[in-house]
Each structure stands twice: as C-alpha cells, then as structure tokens.
Automatic annotation (TrEMBL):
The chain crosses the membrane at residues 28-53. GO terms for molecular function: protein transmembrane transporter activity. InterPro entries: SecE_bac (IPR005807), SecE_sf (IPR038379), Translocase_SecE/Sec61-g (IPR001901). Its main location: membrane. The keyword Translocase does not apply. Belongs to the SecE/SEC61-gamma family. The gene is secE. This is Protein translocase subunit SecE. It comes from Sedimentitalea arenosa. Pfam families: SecE.
Amino acid sequence: MATVNPIQFIQQVRAEVAKVVWPTRREVFLTTVMVFIMAALTAAFFALVDILIRGGLNAILGFFG
C-alpha cells in the first residue's frame, strides 16, 4: 500500500466530501418522524403479543393448576 503525502490526503478527503449529497432539513425531519412512528408501532405490536402470550399462559396454568 503506497503512502500518501498528508497534504495530498487532505485534498483527497475534501474532494470526496464534496461529492456527498447531504439531506435537506425536511428529509432529515421526515425520516426522523418515520423512525419514531415505526418504533412506536413495533413497541405496540410486541406489547400486544406479550399480553396475548401472558393471557394464554395464565389461562393454561389456571386450567391445570
């Protein structure tokens, strides 16, 4: 692997960073909202599954116990 001059390295880094397409404020806001919505839906789903499993186990244990 060839060694690169530190100044040349910094120039290459700046050139690569210039190619990055940064998201707009609106895109960041919308994706953040979508993440929170999906997290809430996932939490609600697993809470519902937990309640159903707990109820089923309580019914089974109550029947045999």
